[in-house]
Please model this.
Amino acid sequence: MSSKLPIITGIGSVTSFGTLAGLISPSPIELAPITAWTTDGLRRAFLVKPFQPTSVVPGLKTRRLDRISIWTLVASTLALQDAGVDLNQMDRSRVAVVFATGFGCIESTEAFYQSAYKNGWAGTDPITFPETLANSPAGHVALLHDLRGPNITVSSKNFAGESALLQAASLLRHGQADLAIVIAGDALTRTAFEWYETAGLLSLACSSEVPLSETSGFVPSEGMVAMVLEPEGREHAKLYARVRGGRWGATDEPLARVRETLQGIAPSLIICGGDGGPCSTSSPISLVKEFPEENTAVIPAQAIALGLADSGALFHLALALSMQPSSGVALTLATSDNGGFATVVLDLP
Amino acid sequence: MTDVKKTIVVTGIGIVSPYGVGMKNLESGLLAGKNCLHLARDVYPGFVGSLAQVSELPHAVSKLGVRYSRTDLLAIAAAEDAVTGIDRQQSFFRESAVVIASTVGGLSEIDPGIMGDPSAWYRQGDGLARARSYSVARAAASVGEHFKIRGPNCGVSVACASGGTAIGLGANMLLDGLAPMVLAGGADGLCSFTMSGFSSLQSLDKDPCRPFDMNRKGLNLGEGAAVLVMETLAGAQARGAKVLAVLRGWAMGNDATHPTAPQKQGTGLAQCMSNAMKMAGVDVEEIGYVNAHGTGTPLNDIAEVNAYELTFRGRSSRVPVSSTKSYFGHCLASAGSIEAAISIAAIRSGSIVPTLRLKDPIESSMVDWVKDAVRHQPVNVAISVSVGFGGSNAAVLFGRADA
Model:
């Protein structure tokens, strides 16, 4: 088992902010009108703008791929570029991919159902079927970069991103991989959006020009964030943060469990994350107030990352790191109803 | 000297298979050579091929806006079976981790009509609850909710390598101290979506499948769930639990050669098996049984045999191999966990069940095909391997409880 803490050395993202390697330049983001399907009047969400994937991954064939597969390929490539990792210098059977998603390949799943809707179950599309599997994006990442290490797709209700990050760190700690690409995200499709809408969970801002700041409620989002995780020690490697540890689960005493995870360390920064998704009445802020330490800075949860629900943790973290926080121990904190919590303890350089 | 805090043991096994609920039903069915495969059209009109179905399960139900899909119910039933005898009020159980693999999830609850008008579909009856069962994490969440377990909860979806992967990830959680006990395994229910998908790929054998036979034509789908109760040896000893087997090694890997087809030479799977053996500190000579992935598809089976040739090269005798998918089909994400349970059963009983309908096996210099009859011989170490779309491979290696 390696005694060195895993460190985050690269970030890549495909979000409403664009297609980026490294930190995300903070800028105001407007909700975008949905045009991918016919809507009953104005409908808005945080959407990924169309872009040319071949500008990042030359020669990439995307026609048959789910958008989240394309985004995982692009985000992982950008994260590797940002990390400055030369895969040719690595044993690729020791490079892991850990992918977190809430809905998996929902777009391909819709396409498969669509073919059944039109042609019956006997007339479905054989090329689409394998692309409906939730691990398809991670498999494509392995194929693109010839990564033959552990290739894992996970999901945890409300905390998929935290779970993926911690399990990737675990692979490194236990010597099951030398480097891991952690990726988390989801795509917004018609069935997902209309589910939120039918359930009455959407903010008024999703169906009118009312500014988001003047409304409450959930605004769906989409996108993908990838991070490169490796043991400390590679020459010239960037250092965004060291991953000390963390946990997720549920408890009657979230503060006690979070403090247990901190092992007596006072955090200098708390990064608020998910709140349990659109149905939740939870908020990490209520837990943050239980930390009486002075000088603990707090970065509130960002609506654009909250819109990813289960898979928003890496997006929250990337946004927080982009705010150039000062050094110290940072704590990510996400909560959900019924005592659900997730926390990751990080050393910031 | 055994490090009791780092030794992962299995203290419970829960199974729902086409033989019914429980290991006894599964073992007696396998030992009797009972074939569960029957014509698919009896259940899914219009589909060709054979399948194996679990008949004892209640239909999906909705409760307070939550609908448990067929997959969820299979997972819950297997977990119930696995934790028989455990005091559920004890903190070690309440703080358990749940790691459940599924690829089908709630697809059984959704029909193509959703694509006509999603909003209208959601407003029909419990449409919202049906669709909610779709999420990747749902089967794991269902088990956690059922027991009111509060430890880490994780859904796993690595295609047909999911079940073995869930066991490996659960073991990592125990090593990390994230939970004192882990319920790990997989569940998948049959549904039109997957029947149609594999049918469209022309992967299905209309007759009962013939894994590793030269005349194999494809796979049959099955359904089921298996959940292992895993804990550290220290934890098991502290609560006086009976140890059924030791999880000595586990590994996950990827072929990185094709989105669906396995690598022909089998090097990815061979590497995965070697990694699991290395972790276990086990030599190729010590492997007493391989429970193969053995789907019966032309591509999978030859790649798998090539992997065995690579892995066991230099071994003094051929390694006993069988595929139990010949009894009840390919249970997708639950396959790896059901087959892990069968591997443990082989160690405990000293009985290796044969591959059914294996008349003309693929030629191999390293494989001792177990066919025709149950083989009775001591098995100290068994390895269960799984292979899936997306290039996924997983291997879990078990040893005797008393070793």
